[in-house]
Amino acid sequence: MKKEVRIYELFAGIGSQFYALKKIAKNFQPISLGACEFYIDAIISYMIIHYGELTPETDFTKEEMHNLLKDFTFSSDSKNQVSKNYFLKIREDKLRKIFPYLYSFINMDYFNFKYKNSGERERENFTDIKQITKLPRNIDILKYSFPCQDLSQQGKQRGISPETRSGLLLEVERILKQNKDNLPKVLLLENVKALITKKFINDFEKWIDVLNELGYKSYYKVINSSDYGSAQNRERVFCVSFLGKHKKFEFPAKKETKNNNKLTRILKLSEIEEKTILELDQKIKFSKTKNGIFKAFIPNYTSFNSENYVYLPKGIGPTLTASGANSRLKFYYQNHKKVRYIDEIQSYQYMGFDKKVAKKVKETNLIPKNKMIFTCGNSISVEVLENLFLSILSSINIQKES
Questions:
Q1: Is the same domain home to 200 and 314?
Q2: Alpha carbons 24 and 28: distance in angstroms, whole number
Q3: Does the active-site annotation cover 148?
Q4: Which tens digit of pLDDT belongs to each residue from 185-220?
Q5: Distances (CA, A) of 113 to 40, 50, 105, 127
Q6: CATH code for the domain in which residue 16 is found
């Protein structure tokens, strides 16, 4: 019988962690013990990616669906909680389509009924981290990549405090301290590089001290996803914390074989006429950055300099973000002299998801194109997670078959 590897995802997003764990599973069985997420589009995407498409709800009235959801904490923009009557304001036909995903996320009986899957391990999902008091038993890996809005260059850099979204890290501290007799074996954090810069390093070191007092030994490093086969240059800090004794941990070595034209394959030309945003007849001079990105500046395209950069669909691509200019990455196809945005399917592939997964989400017609790209920009590189999990599992004596 295969050994189980049990994961719990705080700030789950679209579930890149569980997805990556399943992709490397050969001699172990990945099990989700639960997740916490409040962003509606992320929850719907998560459920489609990991469990499949659902038919619209037909048994409940609109008011009954509203009553079942209204007391949970949901967000329509990933930042602010929706109003108590939010679901009453939604068109009934739309509510019937999204209700099954939202309610099956938070209610296991409904999940088993809709997905016809009584064999699924009982999960404990939440939409509000402040409501979590008791963790499931025997968590192998707890992921807690708290919101980066108040740390990143795109945000206001207000730091980690009870008043900020990034301050939700303090809720993770509370949860761990309330579960001292039931702590996860491994904690995994991913966040923007700013977390370990001069401005925030004191906050980060205080956090490491908290983990140390709880019995964790922590290792952290800035990792570039392009070093592990990703199509993009995505530098993020990862922190892995082990409870008690464990085999020596080392971050995975860089892959000698680079991404083998992965960016070109992802951004291959299709429907170019439909998706063209700009035609350029003048000669554009591209330069190659130290990270292998081919970029050029188009003067006078917009009044915002950051929006005036275009990239070639070869080598390594720039970081995809949830907001700002890098949420609208523009690529120039030289032979056609046309510029087009990265689309939602390509964004999923850019983050390491399979194309069929992206198509599955898109074909439900529940998540708009811009929201699919947004959730990808907030996600974690699957390629990095795969390699990181292999190193983590080796340190807790669970290894992938060679």
A1: no
A2: 9
A3: yes
A4: 999 999 989 888 888 788 889 999 999 999 999 999
A5: 21, 16, 12, 21
A6: 3.40.50.150
